[in-house]
Design brief:
binds magnesium ion, binds guanosine-5'-triphosphate, alpha/beta
Length: 389
């Protein structure tokens, strides 16, 4: 069999499962609005407008569904029909709609944001059909708008887990939800994001995204960093998980102590997008069952509570400019599944998220009319022609 496959030129080695089945979190589609029909100069007839292209959010879809559905990744709107003696006003071309999953940011080829599609049925025009020919255009129908759009999926979870590889992020997700992420004693066990749901007794649910571990230089696209940092951009709470013993990813990297890993994670996020540090943050110092853990924790406890005060003790290269202030600090052993501690952590998560939502809705409601108008104008400036419907 092996010989036969070699003779036929096939590789006997199948791609790894995740490569075949992996999550698609970005997709490019070429969209073309339909062309306008031509007008009829003799009778002043107007050609039909070309059809527009829209994207609409539909729950339950993935970008893989979208990819499988669109041939050659090209979509064209219907052309408007020409004006004739029997029909002076040409028929408009048909609009085309692409159903996409919610949680997508749509960009054009120059990375200009066209809009965010977050909730079910949110709709965005991504290519406008050309105008039908009329007197103004010399009765020639105009070409439809053409562009390549990028659909960029950002997971819509409430909480994003951040940590170096092997810190125990997936162990945490398993402990607090029914998700079954892979857990193993080597770095980069998690290679694609996974979401778990914390269910509270009163049926409240909070979603948590487990992401691949970050490494130093993630903001420069080292490791899988950049690709996955975008998934925590829209979370409401950053939950850091660090190993009390610190971390050494490989022999290529130096060993970092627990506090150094906290500062490095802080710095990576700052370098990626500084605004993200304005979100509430919480930290779990994990693996407290390991040797000497209590002693280390007693030494760092005070500093962890007040990182900015002790910043000068660390090497300049790992000092962030904006230092995290944690809204909750827990030292625990996630494998011991101590239910009281886990319940405390879950309650704290809920408390912080509720406070965050409260604050956000308060500031939204108290924004002055001018502020809202200014924000709207700024959004429109970014969006160019397409408009969120
Ligand atoms: N001793 C000890 N080991 C733990 C604890 N929590 C997790 N581990 C172990 O640490 C290893 C890594 O755990 P994971 O949950 O896979 O870590 P991760 O942060 O998801 O790692 P990546 O997916 O590689 O980024 C596994 O062998 C876990 O069993 C803990 O509290 N104590
Ligand atoms: Mg993991």
């Amino acid at each position: 069999m092996v010989i036969l496959t070699r003779i036929l030129g096939y590789s006997t080695k199948l791609p790894r499962k995740y490569k075949r089945q992996g999550l698609i979190d970005s997709l490019r589609i070429h969209v073309m609005g339909g062309n306008g029909g031509s007008g009829l100069p003799t009778y002043g007839g107007i050609g039909g407008a070309g059809g527009n292209i829209y994207v609409t959010a539909k729950e339950g879809l993935t970008l893989r569904h979208v990819k499988n559905k669109i041939k050659d990744m090209k979509i064209k709107g219907g052309d408007g029909s020409n004006s004739t003696k029997n029909g002076l006003i040409g028929m408009a071309g048909t609009d085309v709609n692409i159903d996409i999953p919610p949680g997508i940011t749509v960009y054009d080829e120059n990375r200009i944001k066209l809009g965010e599609i977050d909730s079910e049925n949110a709709k965005l025009m991504v290519a406008k059909g050309g105008e039908g020919g009329c007197e103004r255009s010399g009765y020639c129908g105009l070409k439809g708008e053409r562009r390549t759009i990028v659909l960029d999926l950002q997971l819509l979870a409430d909480v994003g887990l951040i940590g170096f590889p092997n810190a125990g992020k997936s162990t945490f997700l398993r402990t607090i939800s029914h998700a079954k992420p892979k857990i193993a004693n080597y770095p980069f066990t998690t290679i694609k994001p996974q979401i778990g749901i914390i269910k509270y007794k009163d049926y409240r649910q909070i979603s948590v995204a487990d992401l691949p571990g970050l490494i130093e230089g993630a903001h420069m696209n080292k490791g899988m960093g950049h690709k996955f940092l975008k998934h925590i951009e829209r979370t409401k709470l950053l939950l850091f998980i660090v190993d009390i013993q610190g971390c050494q990813i490989s022999l290529k990297y130096e060993h970092r102590s627990c506090l150094e890993t906290v500062l490095l994670l802080n710095k990576e996020i700052e370098l990626y997008k500084r605004d993200m540090l304005d979100k509430p943050a919480m930290i779990i110092v994990n693996k407290m069952d390991t040797e000497g853990a209590n002693k280390i924790y007693n030494e760092i406890k005070l500093k962890l509570n007040n990182l900015s005060e002790f910043l000068s003790e660390f090497d300049k290269s790992i000092q962030p400019k904006k230092v995290l202030q944690f809204d909750g600090i827990f030292a625990t052993s996630l494998i011991s599944t101590n239910t009281t501690e886990i319940t405390e952590i879950k309650n704290r998560i809920r408390y912080i998220i509720d406070k965050y939502e409260e604050k956000r809705s308060f500031t939204q409601n108290t924004d002055s009319y001018e502020d809202r108008l200014y924000a709207k104008l700024r959004r429109q400036e970014q969006q160019h022609a397409p408009t969120l419907i």
